[in-house]
Amino acid sequence: MKKRVFSGMRPTGPLHLGHMAGALSNWVKLQEQHECFYSIVDWHALMSNYMEAENTRQYCYDVLMDWLAVGLDPEKCSIFVQSHVPQHAELCLALSMITPLGWLYRNPTYKEQIENMQNKDLSTYAFLGYPVLMAADILLYRAELVPVGEDQSAHLELSRETVRRFNNFYGEGLLVEPQPLWTATPKVPGTDGRKMSKSYGNSLDISESAESMWEKLRSMVTDPARIKRTDPGEPEKCPVWDLQKVFNPDAEELEELAHGCRTAGIGCVDCKKKLNVHIQTMMAPIHERRVRYTKNQKLLADILTHGAETASKAARVTMETLYPAMGLIPAFNR
Question: What's the domain count of the chain?
Fold first, then answer.
């Protein structure tokens, strides 16, 4: 029996190789096995980018093109924009009625993002409450599985606690408690050695040209012990090596590169060149598909329209069940 899966991404800028390795490659596999709902969560984007909202519309299309280029198939999964299904906001409001403030203040990701994005004013009601909207996204579709890495486990657990609390108030079985679908999250560093992130400006983007990507790779930080070409290094201390482990499928070459690094038999630039060959081999068909989608705006709009229609049907079923349970009068012709 196919199970229902939900996941989403924020349209806050170009997607990068970290998104592809950590999530999208897994989503492509899941669409073959389950009933998948994949949402471009634009309300979530506005929670942190409300002052640059003029870019959100284009970012939504950029995310869509990246998803399609990597291999998501609208014939096999539902792809839609979050705000096109108004029940997301509706269920978020309903869940906010029962969510204790203490749960939100204890959220470790909230504290981390406040510290890491001090250039933005995130002291808003919506940003504090974004786990409630995240829970609504999942619970609206009665998703049984949510693909997550360990760093997202706190978010999902809050969703599960919300289900228990809601069902305790209004009736057992009204909302489905989602289960984590644990996915291996490879370490994908950015060009400065930190985790690859749009916020840090250190990313290798899915949409960028081969030339641009090589320029970033060429200047990427390496093992600080290798000051000169003749200095031996340690691969496990080098961010480039982390990328090699993710994107280089040649086990024999990896062994040679590790040995060459430790003995100074190979230079850092030579190692980066070999990595670049594997990345560009992988990216060439992705870039080709993306160009085709870029030239067909009507197709993109049709995909989002169809995806929203499918998602809305599932969303209406959920809300029609919750309204009377919460003591509300269901609207006619919803």
Answer: 2
